[in-house]
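User: Predict structure, ligand heme C.
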Amino acid sequence: MRMLLRVVGVLIVLSLIAGAYFAWSLSHAVALPAGPVTSVAAAKILLEPIADGPNAAQLRQGQYLARLGDCLSCHLRADGEPFAGGLGLNTPFGVIYTSNISSDPDHGIGKWTPDQFYRAMHDGIGGGGQHLYPAFPYPWFRNLSRQDDDALLAYLKTTTPVAYQPPDNKLVFPMNVRAAVAVWNLLPLPPQPGKQTPQGATAEWSRGEALVLGPGHCSQCHTPRNLFGADKQGEAFQGGLLDNFVSPDLTGNERTGLGRWTVDDITEYLHTGRNARAAAGGPMGDVVTYSTSLMTDEDRHAIAVYLKSLSASTDVDVTAADPASMKRGAAVFSDACTACHLENAVGQPTLFPPLGDNAVAQQNDPTGVLHIILAGVRVGPSPTRPSPLTMPSFAWKLTDQQVADVSTYIRNSWGNRASPVTAADVAKLRSTLQLDEVRLTDNSGDH
Ligand code: HEC
Ligand code: HEC
Ligand code: HEC
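Assistant: Predicted complex:
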């Protein structure tokens, strides 16, 4: 009995560690993604025509799945070769580097069998039999079929072999013990498609669900996680925090979610990274560049139809903003922000997002807004809109109090309503982001 208790105790501790690790390991790289020019160029390989041949249909299917699964957002480092990996994903416990999945026989997956690949995509077991960290979205990819996985592998084997070895992970003990992942794997997995189909759902709705819960792995970012790093029960798509970016609520909530968006608004955003309401920056910019901008119109439409069916999250009470802070915030806004967002923050459609009735501005957790103001942000380029659009960093121009005031102001003007922000919130994030000179220069202009 005592032995059993001890084993259970160890399991609980391990799963706590693994859970916490998982939650954090979802963080995206703090390192900036490859510059806009490189990224559009790299994404082009996913659109290269595949010559007719005996297995052309399978290869085309595999190439399309690589777009749906957003593989290049992660398996491409700045100035690196497509699929060679080596992008560092920053976590508080150190850095995880993405694997080389090019066709190289020694450093990539050139020698892999379909069984091996299926085990990786379905069970998170790597080429060396090791447990893979769930920063690799296998909990979502496991919803692909065996036939899909075979097609993906066949396609990856046609990519240019790259003899490049990604650096070893820099994780501290005990996070460097891969066995901890086995315990995490016992926790409930993200929902599977086809399990809760509402009555009267169309084939298009089901396609949208399969894309969102499967290769699109949208809930990896957009669903909040519990202490164990598993999806919070009953809060699917209500918004998540990763790497200090807030992935907004995608439910029908009219303040924080997509309640005011039409199906066409969503489709346009996924296609071009912009629409009359918002622009896709940060981690979502990568998703647009490497995945949603390269999907078929039918698939984007199906995703939009599925998202529009998500019932609204429950709204929270919002504390009123202090009038003095609002007044100071209005002055900062007029000074620093109207050049792009214009008076009354009406914005310029598809160039600078309007900030009124804006869901990103009104998320319950202000971290995302603060991150955008402090660090600046770049809209993800896409084939239809290849030119970069950048919002500069204000970290060096504005004090903590000024950032707090302007945030409180934009969160409570032009129809917006959200909790006020304090200078202490800003100071905390500023120190977490460790904004250094290099990053500021990098972020504050195009190169
Ligand atoms: C969110 C980032 C992310 C995305 C998106 C992603 N991967 Fe990965 N992938 C990783 C990370 C991180 C690892 C390494 C995990 C580890 O070392 O435990 C990895 C590892 C792998 C491995 C195991 C390689 C080995 O040598 O064991 C395969 C296979 C793989 N990914 C395939 C894919 C494919 C195919 C796609 C697209 C359908 C994809 N990945 C999308 C992050 C990602
Ligand atoms: C790597 C994390 C990540 C993944 C994966 C991801 N998103 Fe996002 N998403 C974000 C972030 C962060 C934002 C906010 C972007 C901004 O502030 O400019 C966002 C914004 C959005 C928005 C706009 C919301 C608004 O109110 O402005 C939509 C729509 C969206 N995502 C849909 C999707 C869909 C559909 C998928 C899956 C195909 C997906 N996302 C996958 C992180 C992610
Ligand atoms: C040089 C032009 C420029 C200036 C000046 C500027 N912005 Fe932006 N802003 C942008 C662009 C471009 C985006 C789209 C990036 C994105 O959404 O990820 C953006 C996005 C935003 C967003 C996110 C909206 C959304 O839908 O994703 C917020 C919030 C924001 N800006 C606030 C501010 C505030 C506050 C200031 C002044 C302190 C400011 N901006 C100054 C260009 C600018």
